User: Fold this.
Amino acid sequence: MKMTKHNPWLTIGVILVLGAFLLGAGAMPHHAEAISLGGTIGDLVKIFGIAWVVDRFADDIDRTINSLLRQHEAEIQGHTKVVPIIRVGSGTAVGAAQIMGPQSQVEKVQAVAEVELRITGSVRARGLIPVTTRKGLSGTPGGVGGVGVSANIKFPL
Assistant:
């Protein structure tokens, strides 16, 4: 884990912005069709917004997660980093993940690939695999050994 001095007001600001976004997304009126951006365009706005937030505030999100875990006596040993979760096949950012492991391995990770499998009817399995690229995720992506996902921040799309 990197030891850097951070501005607590920035961390509070990030938490407030994410909280306002999540509250606003859940409180949108259903009858406001006049301002609807449409399914695909609306999803693209959400997706690019998620990717930007993760890229811009990754260090602040990482410190916040580590602080919360430390408060509950669940501090992570080793190096941590926050990266976007990229859906395999579509290549879209759908959330953020905190990864953990040896510093040399964590530094290789650029994203976490999300692979979803439908087992039967309503039973689904989801795999989160730390990977070395953000682009061209299709099929079965190769993972980075020794690195695991320690936190998952999922945005409903």
